[in-house]
């Protein structure tokens, strides 16, 4: 994946599990999945910080694992 990916036009969505108090929030961009085949993921508390760039298949596998409860919360 390109390190030069321009994310300024990304439309970010918050996780449906994010709370309204600005807690631990994850944002992702569906628009990049549709146009680039990649899914940028970032911390909503640091919108100008780094983003992880995942393949669409990698993101789908991660979300499926979360739904199945494969990442227990401590």
From TrEMBL:
InterPro entries: DUF397
Domain DUF397, chain residue ranges per copy: 10-66
Annotated protein name in UniProt: DUF397 domain-containing protein
């Amino acid at each position: 994946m390109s390190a030069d990916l321009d994310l300024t036009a990304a439309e970010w969505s918050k996780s449906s599990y994010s709370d309204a108090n600005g807690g631990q929030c994850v944002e992702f961009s569906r628009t990049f999945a549709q146009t680039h085949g990649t899914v940028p993921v970032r911390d909503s508390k640091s919108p100008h910080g780094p983003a992880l760039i995942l393949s669409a298949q990698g993101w789908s596998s991660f979300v499926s694992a979360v739904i199945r409860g494969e990442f227990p919360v401590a």
